Amino acid sequence: EHRHRNLIKALEQEVETQRNVIRHLEKQREMITLEMEEKLTRTNLLFEERMKGFVPSCVREELEETIVALKAQSTILEQKASMLQNELTLRNNKNSPHVKAKG
C-alpha cells in the first residue's frame, strides 16, 4: 500500500513537471511567433516604404528574399513547437497515473 502511494505520488509529480514544461514551451512558442510576426511586419513596412521611392531591383530582391526566409523560419518554428507538444503529450500519456502500476 505504501509503495503504491509513493509510486502514485512520483507519477503525479512527473505529470506536474511535464505540465510545467508544456506551459513553458507554449509561452516560448508564443514569444517566438510574435517576434517573427513583428519582424515580418517591419520587413514588409520597410519594403513598402522603399518601393515608394522606386527601390533598385537588387534591394527589392534582397527584401523579398528576407521576407521569404522569415516566413520559412516561422513555419519551421511552428512545426518544431507542434512536434515538441506532441512528444510531451505522449510522455504525459505514458506516465499518467491512470495507467495501472505493476507490482
Keywords for this entry:
103 residues; mainly alpha; 2 helices; rod-shaped
Overview of the structural elements:
The protein has helices spanning 2-52, 57-94. It has 103 residues and is an all-alpha fold.
Question: Which helices and strands occur, and which strands form pairs?
Answer:
Layout: H1 2-52, H2 57-94
What is the overall pLDDT average? Answer: 86
Helix coverage percent of residues? over 70%
Could you tell me the strand content as a percent range? under 5%
Query: How are helices and strands ordered from N to C?
Result: HH
Radius of gyration: 23 Å
Number of helices: 2
Main sheet summary: none
Shape estimate? rod-shaped
The class by helix and strand makeup works out as mainly alpha
In total, the number of strands is 0
Which regions have little confidence, pLDDT < 50, spanning 5+ residues? Answer: none
- Please report the distance between the alpha carbons of the first and last residues: 11 Å
Question: In brief, what are we looking at here?
Answer:
The protein has two helices and no strands. By secondary structure, it is an all-alpha fold.
